[in-house]
Amino acid sequence: MTTKLTRREILSQSTTLLLMVPLAPLAGCSSSSSGSTADSGAPAPCDGIEDTSTVTNNHTHTLCTLTSDLENPPAAGVDYTTSFNAGHSHTVTLTQAQLQSIESGGSVTVTTSSPYPHNFTISKM
Q1: DSSP state, residue 20
Q2: Are strands 78-81 and 62-66 parallel, antiparallel or unpaired?
Q3: Which residue intervals of 43-113 are DSSP H helices?
Q4: Is 58 left (phi over 0), alpha (psi -120 to 50) or beta?
Q5: What is the pTM of this model?
Q6: Nearest to 81 by CA among 121, 46, 36, 50
Q7: Residue 81: how many CB atoms within 10 A of its CB?
Q8: Angle at CA 110, nearest 5°, toward 93 and 41?
Q9: Beta pairing partners, 76
């Protein structure tokens, strides 16, 4: 047996769904994101090396290079997302060779995605 919905019920339910869809990215998490937050809204602690970018357009970003990626660098490298600041975040890609260099005590400078790219110099201290 099927139940017919009234126009009011359909509009009410679809409006609720449409209002919830934009919130989905905020509730999700990404696998290598330094911009993720804990339930309190505070930045999640970095389990690795945390760096602050150069200043571009009057703002900076932070980046967390995970210890697990440094100790076991994936052959394909890793993509990280910076913190969210000034209305945006950036993507940073580190190759396996760059991760190995950092882990062995070297220093690597990378540039974020656009717009207004930033530089990060990542090294173990």
Answers
A1: H
A2: unpaired
A3: 67-71, 96-103
A4: left
A5: 0.66
A6: 36
A7: 21
A8: 65
A9: none
Q: Which two tokens stand for residue 20?
A: 């919830």
State the Cα angle at 42 between 60 and 47, rounded to 5°.
75
Do you know the residue count of the chain?
Answer: 125
> What residue ranges in 7-123 does DSSP mark as E strands?
48-52, 62-66, 78-81, 91-94, 107-111, 119-123
What is the full per-residue pLDDT of the chain (125 aa) written as tens digits? 556 656 665 555 554 434 443 433 333 323 344 444 444 456 678 999 999 999 999 999 999 999 999 999 999 999 999 999 999 999 999 999 999 999 999 999 999 999 889 999 999 87
Strand partners, 5: none
